[in-house]
Fold these 2 entries.
Entry 1:
Amino acid sequence: MIRQGDIILIPTSSVEIDKLQPAPKDPRGIVLAEGETSGHFHALVGRGKLFRFRDTRRDQMLLRVTSKSGGKIAVVGGEINGSPRHKTLLLEKGDYIVRVQRSWTSANASRKVSD
Amino acid sequence: MRKYKLTPKHKARLPEWRDRWIANAMRTRGQTDEERELARDHVEGLYRAAGLPPPPRSRIVFVPSPIVGAFAAGFSAWIWETRRNAATEDAAKWAASMAGAVKNAIAATIVATWDAIHVATWDATRDATRVAIENATRAATEGATWSATWSATRVATEDATRVAIENATRDATWAATEDATWSATEDATENAAWSAMRAATEDATWSATRVATEDATWDATGVATWAATENATSAATSAATACAGNKWLSDLNMAQLALDLFGSESQSALACAGLAYRFVNGGSHWSGRSAYISFFRHVAKLNIDYSNWNHYERLAELAGPRWVHKEFCILSDFPEVLTVDEHNRPHNDNGPFCKWRDGFSLYSIHGVRVPEWLLTRPDRLTVDAINDETNEEVRRVMIERYGVSRYVQDAQFLTVHEDVDLSGQERRLLRRGDTLVVEVVNSTVDGDGTRRRYHISVHPELRPLLSSGELGEPQSMSCHNAVASTFGLRGEEYQIESES
């Protein structure tokens, strides 16, 4: 399990292929999440694909790293005093469920954390 | 009867039909004159469908918002009931006085909402009050004694009522009003016309359609439309209608208006406004059923007689909520603003989520109704204001807007648990009342050598926050469990190998 700021990647091998829907194309690349305040985003550096699927009642996101040598997760933009918000992390080849951190806002409600 | 089976061709049109009715429920374009004229025709059609004589067209009244509609309908119902019971001369005289009060009140411009209620009440009850005046004239000989009695009692009852309404809480006021006048107002807000109409149009077609179709189609049209619009539209309408008798008494000073109009009878008239929901129909805001039934009418073309239903369906497109009384019908315009968040909850960060054309506005942050000042007067948002707020949901919204980190610092939270995370950074779990936050420090060092500190609100029982909006099971109080819960995980599932 890998964490970069407000996202985590959970290695998985249990998601069935026929449940996966390709995520809409993003001209910036494979974007996993983005911050609302500074315009930064978490993206895959390397070859891979992003999918959406529905698990029980949840909309989930699956990242498939296809390169044999794996890939990297980097934060693009939103530097603070010239430094990236979070260090780049290595990823092995394989499938990962991507989750975005949520905070509790009120009874029966939570929202994505945007740093 | 052989059940209709959804064909692939018809099935392909379900999303379009659902979206069309969602758009209808969320409509913010104002009613046109042509639509008002058409609406009058269909209101008449509704009454005829129910076997009732329609009210004259002058008593099919249009109002700018449901708050005006609820009060005008309640007041008008009370006036008609008083007129019906004006058997005794005293009552007739009272009715005559009341008619004068209505007219005077119309002449006096106080607030836009008041004026609209005056006008609508007057339009809906003109005949009743005119007849009452005639009755009163016949009893003119006793006028002197009546006036004396009226003057003597009015001041005392007015003062008593004013004190009761201004000082009591809204619930106490409601209880007092309801207890004292329940039976009278029950009669005045009789919803026989409403019931008859509903039976003749909506219910009849509903039953016929349900018998002839399958549940799946209801899910795809009615349920889908309802799910997408219910939160926002019911908040927009119900807030202004079902609560007319209590909540808005203080917000809009309706007690004063009722006193101006009805004098010592103001409590009864207010109670009628509170009960006006008994004969309300949501109009465009109740688009779920219309989405379902109209699909079978226009797409599947079921062999059902839709002639009565037609009036109901058209009115769902031509007007907002309506109040249907034997003697009058009051219809509201559409709102000017109606916004929701990604979960279809009433929401607007920068202004009212719902605003009607008379200016009547409602404020909501992700489905939590909040006071107007929270959005328009941020300078009033202090730690004291947050702590004084008794509604937990509103308080949470206030804390968010104040800034969780700033609030934790200013409001002196207690530490429930503390530890060190994987990268050696301190974490604290902090509590104040039911508010629980986890304080974490970024593992990446910023360019200036410092690390950013975050305060993240977590569920008071550390239940995992699932992306569907659902919650997991409670967990024991620890920083690790708290952080895990923000990713929808339990502490034992949250095993990080690398982090930045």
Entry 2:
Amino acid sequence: LTQFIEKLNKWKITGVLLFLIPLVIGLIIAALIPRPVVGVITLDDAISSSTAQAMINQIGYARAHPEIRAVVLVLNSPGGTVTDTEAVYLELSRLRETKPVVTMIGSMAASGAYYLTVGTDYVFAEPSSMVGNVGVIGYTPQYPIVVDDIYSTGPYKLWGEPRDQFMREIEMLKQGFIQAVVLGRGEALKVDKEVILRGQIWTGADALRMGLIDELGSQSQAMDKAAQMAHIAHYRVMDLGTLAWGVDTSTEPEFFQKTSDGVITPYPAKQGLYMLYIPTTGEAQ
Amino acid sequence: MKRYQIILAVLLLIVPPAARSLWFYQGVYQRSQPVATPDYASYQVPVAPVTDGEESSTAKDHPVAQNSDEKNVTVLVDAGHGNRFSLSEIQPLTDAISHAGGKVVVANSPDAFLLDYRAADAYLVIAPAVAFSGEEIAAVEKMVGQGGRMVVMADPTRNGGTSQYSAEVGPMNAVSVANQLLDPFGLVFSDDYLYNLSQNESNFRNIVLTDFSKSPLTDGLKEVVFYSALSLSAAPTTLIQGDDNTLSSLTDQGGGLAAVGSDSNGRVVAIGDMTFATEPYNQIAGNARLVQNLANYLVEGSRQRTLTDYPYVFQQPVQFLVPGDIEVDPAKTAALGLIHASLGSEMGALKMVSTPEAGVDLVIPATYAEAQGQALSGLMKEFGLEYTGAESDASSGSDYPAMSSAEVQQLIETLKTASAEGTLDEMLQSLPSQSGGGTATETGTQAGGGTTTESGFPAGGAWLGTITVPGFGSIQANGNGLILLSHNEKRTTLALLASSTNALQELAALVRSGDLSNCAIMEQTAVCPLTPQTDPAGGG
């Protein structure tokens, strides 16, 4: 009996060792497999140097972290500066090489924000979202003059460029914008370039008919679509905005002009080139 | 260890991670196509259309108005209606006008306009923002009705709202104000802008225009570029129009929208753009040619003025015709001086001639008797006067004896600055020969060679017949003066006729005062009541 018991104990230990250890190891390995993440990058402002940098940081994080399998870009923006828009657009393009990016247009994705939109793989909007306003806007530089107390080494050292040249550069930037739309929307686009270049802003429903977006829906649908495109399930959502470290906005000048009584206007505070929707009342600024 | 035990152990190792993986990951994301981004490096800044040899951008290469140095055409530029432009902006145009022989006068206020328009042969209005009064519109209509020309330029960038010009302008929409002037001529600007998304000059609002109707304004044009332009919703004649892809911002429709049009007589032109006449846009395509054509158009108007435009009735230097066989007594001298003064300071010295010269306009101050004489009758034919009745009295009628030439000049210079006709007698009396009852002979002696008018025909005599004036019927010569204006290819002639030199002096004083409201005026003829001579034979 004693021998039998000893033999049995040996077998138990052996059985435990034989089955439990691999199971534990398997479970540990399984636990090390990360739950897929759909990252959310939100732009709820104009595209300025600080908001662009914050987005670029988030895009970089998403690209560097394999558990983030897809990204949803939630846009509610009238656009912004040309250079900042292009910077984000190009970062998005890099991200898309490895991960799908889906856009969810909230109340507005106009001008530069739409530029970002066409740089993603799938676009949702709400029926009443404002979409489009494709084009570039800018203030013409001053006529070059000679200033008594300022010496420079060339006629445009002080003024940047001739007014005429400025006008033509805007046209060149427009070409880049419309090309981005054509490339981004591809065969989904149902209207001619001329229609888009009118700069009109459309509702989400109209935008869908024109092929400027892919689907009307909600943010959760956008998440699901991103997950579907990334071939993941049971994902978790991560707001990448909480990771927008390193962007100090405290010293950045206001993007929009303010009136003397502190009211924010839709006009940019600085002169420059913009992909920006300005809901003007007709008054030139 | 048995084999099945090993397999079981391996399964226990694999299943949990596999299950978790399958739970989360159902495939591997792979792009079907590479990410495409615009080829930014391939985009180039658009280049402005280059002028070809025929449409050279320099003004000197363009034809200018014929005989530009002989023109005496005044182009009135409106700057008195809150106009949203600066003169420096349109310098290419004003330079072209000057080059074409025109004189640019700027009216800085509505009051100045009402004064200056009488001198104007053409009127240039750009983006006005302060309404024109009924009087001003009537004045413009009159000017155009007389053959003058008007160019109204508007521009969507100068139409309304605040701008760098806002501090100077009224609150009105420039299109509405411009249409005030254009409406009587059947032209109407639309409050829109034209654009072309498919073919433009660097921007949708910079429209390229190649469709021209035949007119002096479009002569030699192949292509012009308007850097933002309004369309015309009504134009009797379309001069420049857009193509099918040039659309109106109001309707987003297009096809033959007029950017430049004229009235049915070709005297009024409406242009929906002003940038083509500004630097540097005047250097693009055929814009410089258009600017030159516009300048030529403005200076080639032929305004036929009436007496109500006096003294702005002359186009050439003015000379006073006094035939040699007609002596100039002091009263006539005074009349000459008054008339000369009425012409304004720009006329320079009074120049009297005995026979008409070429290339000048004439003023003929004469009595009725002189007008019937051999020296003047030929020139007076064109007025169509018919004389009937009494003879002339050549012996008297002058209040003053003859003056020396020095005294004549002195009197003229004095009268040029005189403002009130009432001072005339005092001035005459102040002359050395006239004071203290001096005689002509004495004066002549004093002046060193002066002449007298002892018996010259008809120096101051009153002609007492009746005159049939075309349009007026017969009038009594005594107590009536005539102011007659005629234009022909060679000259403008203004004749002032009265029964005597005294009456002529009174008529001249009336002209000098600028108030012909007591005269009956019919286009080119005015009949002015004067003081009747109760003793025609003895003068005033």
